[in-house]
Amino acid sequence: MPAWPVYISAMTLDALRMTRHHTLLALALAAALVAPCAALHAQWAQPPRSPTTQAPARAAGVIDGTVTDTLLKPVGFAEVKILRTDISVETNSAGRFRFTEVPAGQYLLIVRRIGFRPISSVIQVGARDTLRLSFLMEPALQTLDKVVVTEDRRSIKLRDFEARRAQGVGFFITQDQIEKRNLPVSADYLRMAPSISLAPSPNASGISELVAISKREGGSVFGEGAMACAMQVVVDGVPMPRRFPLELLPTPREIMGFEIYSGAATVPPQFSGADRRCGMILVWTRDG
What we know:
This protein is α+β, with helices and mostly antiparallel strands. The chain has four helices and 14 strands.
């Protein structure tokens, strides 16, 4: 069958060209509109991840100090310990000591040396700062037994604790009672004693701290008047500063027992060197 020629007019060609042009333009416009939408959708579907941030490390400070006797001579080989931590050092022959990288905060520092009365001090370590301290140690009168004692320190403390408890004077909290109650804060055990009130007392910075006061001697810790009667706290034979913040006590797991004496007349004579006007709280820690 013969093929018939197809005749297309010039007008028809122009129409086809216009249609093709409009089609390409429409496709390009559609692509331009779809691209931002797709990008926006991808942005919502997978938001950009910010780099992982970690909490900044607690800033640390430095403690630099000296220990001398009453004649201002250096006291070497004195133990300097920060309570409730594993941090302790000995002074060198010049009586100097130094702690580095101590996290900022409030601490209780204890200085001990055979032949001297122990010293305690509440300190505030600043961030990226050096705290400079100076301690003056007083000689202690000591009597030496003729018989060599072979008992370890723990048994001596426990023996003396139980001997005083057997006398029936004072209020005692034993290690068994501490473990059975299993309280999280050491100061809470002192609420067991009927002669003690725990009350907030502002420190030099205006921050409220918990202080033990004797119900027998007075009910307020504010001011220096007759009603201000904060009890003396003694930890392992070391008198704590006046109006000692109970938040700095050793943890319950570290404590062997408490002895609470409501007034000066009931405090055992061997602790007469400490301020006992308002009563006394003896805290004994465990060894080992």
